[in-house]
Amino acid sequence: MWYRVVVYTYGIQRSPATIEVVAVTAEYVTSEEHLPDDLTGEVTIQVTDSKTKEIFTTRARIDRSPDTLESPDSLTIVRGPHENVEEQWYIDIIETDVTLADIDAEVLRDCIQRSQDESNVVNARSDELRALLLYLVETGRYQSVSEAVRSILGEYLSDRYPELVDSYVDVRTELEREELATRLGGEE
């Protein structure tokens, strides 16, 4: 919502000065790491509602200036190693219920089979993450780093990508049924 206020100043010259006031209805925050490389046009971006602290993925337009957006809301982009540097942008939310595109069952099936055939080791190559995971183990929250990784990733994927997890369960069950039918001599 935009308002244009005209202010007249009196002095030697009487000249109008225009001040634009933006009525912001919502405030959002995102991390610089969530910004897509190409910010032109519509983007899919993860944001947090500043008031409710809800994290969600949205389809939107973002810009440094509210002038180019139809219905701009405030978007604070945090950056830096401690995310303590803030930059003010604006966001025009188009759609709030954005999920992953339809899950490609064939790609998921291939990924499941590859993970069974190849190494199932997940490696982040991060001293920082390993130190944090070790802390969780040392303080008794988990029995091992592997358990911590499985638990944390499982919770995160279930929360952020429930449709992918549901599809995984369906495809994995189908694969197991096919394997069992093959072992028992039956055909699918």
Quickly count the domains: 2
The tally of helices reads 4
Query: What proportion of the residues form beta strands (DSSP E)?
Result: 25-35%
Average pLDDT number: 81
Radius of gyration of CA atoms, rounded to a whole number = 25 Å
Order of helices and strands: EEEEEEEHHHH
In helices, the fraction of residues equals 25-40%
Give start-end ranges of low-pLDDT stretches. 1-14
Commentary on this structure:
The chain is extended, with a radius of gyration of 25 Å. It starts with a strand and ends in a 5-residue tail after the last helix. It has a five-stranded mixed β-barrel with strand order 3-4-5-7-6. With 188 residues, it is of the alpha+beta class. The longest helix is centred in the C-terminal third of the chain and has 22 residues. It has two domains: 71 residues, no CATH class; 79 residues, no CATH class. The protein contains four helices and seven strands, in the order E-E-E-E-E-E-E-H-H-H-H. Helix 1 crosses helix 4 and helix 3 packs across helix 4.
